Every structure is written in C-alpha cells, then in structure tokens.
Amino acid sequence: MVEMLASYVAGQWYTAPDEGTLVLDASTSEPVARVSTTGLDTRAMVDHARRAGGPALRRLTFQQRAAALKELATYLDANKATYHELSLATGATRRDGTGDIDGGIGTTFVFSSRAKRELPDGYVLTDGDVEPIGKGGTFVGQHVYTSLPGVALQINAFNFPVWGMLEKLAPAVLADVPSIVKPATQTAYLTAAVIRDIIASGALPEGAVQFVCGGVGDLLDHLGGEDVIAFTGSASTAAVLRANHAVTARAARFNAETDSLNCSILGPDATVGTPEFDLYVKEVSREITTKAGQRCTCIRRALVPESMVDEVTAGLRARLDKVVVGNPRNETVTMGALVSLHQRDEVRDAVTALMRATEVVYGDPMSVNPVDADPERGAFMAPVVLLATGDRPEPHEVEAFGPVTTLIPYSAPADLGALAARGGGSLVGSILSHDPDFVRAVVAGAAPYHGRLLILDRDCAAGSTGHGTPMPQLVHGGPGRAGGGEELGGMRAVKHFMQHTALEGSPAVIAALGGGS
Fold first, then answer.
1. 298 a catalytic residue
2. Model's pTM, two decimal places?
3. CATH topology of domain 263-473
4. Active-site residue 213, yes or no?
5. What is the mean pLDDT of residues 86-98?
6. Which residue is catalytic, options 167, 213, 226, 257?
7. Which of 167, 226, 276, 296 is the catalytic position?
8. CATH topology of domain 7-259+486-512
C-alpha cells in the first residue's frame, strides 16, 4: 500500500482516512505517495499557531531566532542525502536537486547570518531616524517594525518543494510569525520529508511550523488582518486567492510570486566570437533545460537582433544537441522529466498555441527518446526553440512552463523597452552586452517591468549566479503578471511579515523601546 502522507496539526501528525490523491513518479509513473486533507481541522491549526507558535517565537530575541535558524539549517544539511533521493522522483536531475535542496538550506543559513549581523538583540526593529515633531525636542516620532500576532500561510509551487518552503520559512521565523506550509500535491512527498526533520530537529518551538499535505479546505476562512498569505504559483491561481474574502474583506496580507514571461536581451555588440554572445547562448540553453524549464524565472522570450537570429539559432542547436533527456537516476542524463504527464500535456498545448505566431527551429514537442525510460509513461519532453514570425501577441502572453523558449527578433535598440514590457511584468530579465550606453538605455526602459535585471558580460560572468537563480540577498518578485509581490531581499523579506507602526512620544520613551535600524 502506498503511504498516505501525514499533515502536522496542532502538535500531532494527522493522516486522512480516505484514499486521497495518488502521486506518481515523474519518470516512471510508479506510485510514490498519496495525499489528502479529508477531516483536517484547519481551525485547530490556526488557533495553535496563534496561541502556541506565535507566543513561543515572540519570547525569543532576533538573535535567538537567528541561532535557531542556523541550528535548523545544520540539521537539514546533515540529512539532505535522503531529500536528494526523493527529489529524483520529481523528475529532477541531481544537479536540479542541488538548486532546490542545497539552495533552500543555503538560503536558511544566509538569513541566519544576515540576521546575526544586522538585527538587534531585542524584540523591536526601528526604522530610520527619530523624527522631531514638537517644538523644543520634547515630542518625537519613530517608525518601528513589530511582530504580527497571526500566522503565515505559505502556498507553494511544485517546482521547488524545498527551497520554496525554506525561503519563506526563514524570514517568517525571524519576524516571529508561525507558518502553515502547504506544498503542491505533485511534489508534496519531498516537502513532507523535510518537514518531518524540521519537527524532529527541535530547533524551532512547537507551533512555529505546521503542515497541510493536500488541499487547504476552509483554512482561508480563519485568516484576517494579522495574517499573511505567501503564494508561489500560477498567475491564475494567484488571482483566485487574491479575490478570497480573507484578502478582500478581512485584509489578510497577500504576497504573490507567479509565473512570468521573462526575457533575455542580446545586445547588438554581442556578435559571434564575443564572450557575450557565447554567454547568451549558454544562458538560454541552461535556462530551458534546468528543471526541464520548470522555473518561474526561466527565459521564455529571447530577444535578439534581426541580423543575428541565424547565428543564435545555430549556437542553441549546438548546445542543445548535447542534452541527454531521460530518467534522472541514470548518470548520463542531463535533463529529466517534467513533474507529471498532465504538466507535459499542458506544455505541449501551450506550444501549439505559440505556433500560431511562431515556427519551430529546434526540437519536436511531441517526440522524445528518453534514456532508461518509457516515453509514454514518463513526463518527458525534448527542448524546443521557437522563432516568432510576426508581430502577434502569443509569445508575450502564452507561457509554456517547460523546456521551451521563443526567439523574438528586434530591429532597433529603441524597440526593446516596449518589447520587454509586452510580457506584462516579469520576475527577471537579463541583458548581455559589453556596451554601457546600450545597457543604460535598456535598463531605463525595462526596469519598471522587472523585479530583477541581470547585466551579464565578460567582466562579471565568472562570479554570476545566472539569469534564473534568485539570491536571498536580493528581492525576488516582480510587477504585473509576476504577481506584484516581493520575496527574499535580505532583511526586507523579514519586514514583509511584520507590522510597520509610527510611534509618537517623548525622546526618552521612544529610546527606551530599544531595537536597531
């Protein structure tokens, strides 16, 4: 019998009594786990978070919370071999798993070390300088951040079952807000393994973390103005959540990081033979093959000068010809499966929609010969490169969330700001050029539509983490279609889980509140 994954509710493990939803191995379609929340007491979860988890966290200073995160990350790091084995069932290669698992643990370490350096050994975080208000200096104002008495509900996507959880959990812990973790069903078994170790570690007080393995049911009915909903996933699901009464009527705080049609721009100076041209081809190839293209930061639109379309296509073909698609348990495989057969079919449908405005210049979305796997039972797809053939909207509106990118020619640098903006708002864009004047002009036009811009050239390539990798030190999020929210960004992320309040009073009283900026 396939294991029914348990939820962690009010200090107890809860297993649903029904058959639940069967989750399959992405490469073999063999059963991995079952998922259900039938009978789950969501009210008990929220009450436990508010009455046990929150108060326990708020008894700790910022420095004590930072130490707890370090202890947690150390514990998870010692147990990560188990996570890596489970990750293979998601279709991820071992290299993909490193970005998710080691990346998530590393992010927890970063938040711990940044908090140790930047946050006070107290409970209140002051913001900015004291503002004189009254005459004679006897009445002043001060902005502060304080802990919310509510709960953070994190609803995560299937593509990063470890990193997606930990990058939200770490700042929430530092902000003294207990978390309820709800992973995507397709990869919930990997998140569940990490959650079990988080509880077993004892690094966090009881109630600081709870786990919903399945649907959220009526959980949102219990959330209000002191609670936070942190969502990662599709723009359509974000719209549904944003319209919930918990947000619209009771003012629960809502942060969304959603899929986006990210672009990468090749500068006219980056001709064949320059380091920037080679970097461009490498970045686009890597983005659509890492996690089989299932990253919300993936390059969906490759903007290239009209005069270099053939050269870029040839460069991509040469690199993609070396990609080995198949079961990630085979060490020769460099690109694994999509997360499910359903996801593969969705990507194929998206490619069909895109082909109304493009032609295929590399790959076949309907044909693949995977290594050590049955192409009918595994969710495999070969890399596909499309070329836009006219000025139609599809490349700027339809996202194929898989190993797919569209080459979009541009005729003049002056067109790039408007072209980038047609994506409707993106998590990340990149510019590959060694011409500072070109870069300056593109940044001015494109920055308002992006949460992050990578400017990649020969001078920084060796130290760059690449187009698609968010770092905990910098903001992750974006405007418009990308969700309009922010995650990460060092201590900025911690403040997202706190209340910003203006205090007024005498200088002595305000100073006595302590804290640090």
1. no
2. 0.91
3. Aldehyde Dehydrogenase; Chain A, domain 2 (3.40.309)
4. no
5. 95
6. 257
7. 296
8. Aldehyde Dehydrogenase; Chain A, domain 1 (3.40.605)
